[in-house]
Amino acid sequence: MKKIFTTLGLISAISAMNAQIVINEVYGGGGNNGSTYTNDFIELKNIGTASVTLTNATLQYASATGSFNQYHTLPTITLAAGQTYLIQEGAGTGGTTALPTPNFTATTIINFDGTSNTNVGLAMAAAAGKIVLASNSVQVTLPTNSNVLDFVGYGTTANQYEGSGPAPAPSASNSTARISGDTNNNASDFAAGAPSPQPTSGTLGISDIRSTGVHFIKNTLVKNESLTFGAQAKDVKIYNMFGQVVKTASVKENQLLNVAELAKGNYIVTGTVNNEPVSQKILVD
User: Fold this and answer.
1) What is the CATH number of domain 214-284?
2) What integer is the mean pLDDT of 265-276?
3) pLDDT given at position 212
4) Which residues of 131-153 are buried (b: 16+ CB within 10 A; e: fewer)?
5) Cα separation of 134 and 140, whole Å?
6) Of the ranges 14-28, 81-95, 160-174, 201-215, which is most confident?
7) What is the biggest distance separating any 2 CA atoms in the chain, rounded to whole angstroms?
8) pTM for the full model?
């Protein structure tokens, strides 16, 4: 029985590694003097290899040395491997440029103590603070709490963070953004630099045609059990629902990719078009 338990534990660990949505970028300088963007933002990203869905998740905010006293809920989010998700937060009076169209605009902010909060979106400090992605609306107190999906303490004065220290300090002109995977060390996983808000990547961008054999949910052309790409796509990978890569390729514009060998079921196709990550869900039936 112990051996079976150990094996199941290993499978669970591998699943978590292959399916992980994390905080990818934090910008609290929106609307400040010296800023370009009018709004703060938080960007999530699936850095795993399998599609992930978050349900009932929240973003919770605290000042650099304060407690997590406010939060907002998130809609149900499904991200394929490599996809980002842009969340627009509070606005200031400065800045000249609106964010790219966000995937979600935070409006109602809830205080954990029950008092009212009239802010539209989280009003985050530009230089130092703490953001947590939580699986529910239970107030977070530590980076190690069981409902913490990801935790970022940023700026030199942040008193809580993952690992050996906080993420490098952003500013009115810089965000702090993930530069590698997730080693649970904010100090080394993040770097400060120009803000780069990225809404969820688009699909592979092809016409809405259905045929027998393989069906794309949308924006795809199917012909003779092949996928046709309307633009050159690099590093194309097809994942099954277990997060396993079942086919890889790079294709030119209007080139066919034969997928007749795929078993019936759902798949995620990812690739890079015009240096931007794209993804699309398909159904083989």
Assistant:
1) 2.60.40.3080
2) 73
3) 29
4) bbbbeeeebbeebeeebbbbbbb
5) 8
6) 160-174
7) 62
8) 0.68
Q: What is the CATH superfamily name and number for domain 2-193?
A: Lamin Tail domain (2.60.40.1260)
Q: How many residues are recorded in the chain?
A: 285
Quote the pLDDT of residue 241. 66
| 2-193 and 214-284, same CATH topology | yes
Positive or negative torsion for Cα 150, 49, 243, 263: positive
Tokens representing residue 51 in the block: 């599609």
Q: Which two tokens stand for residue 261?
A: 């060998």
Which of 144-158, 196-210, 228-242 shows the lowest per-residue confidence on average (mean pLDDT)? 196-210
Backbone angles phi, psi at 11, to 5 degrees: -60, -45
Q: Bigger pLDDT: 203 or 63? A: 63
Supply the pLDDT for residue 11: 28
Instruction: Select the more confidently predicted residue: 13 or 237.
Output: 237
Domain boundaries, the chain: 2-193, 214-284
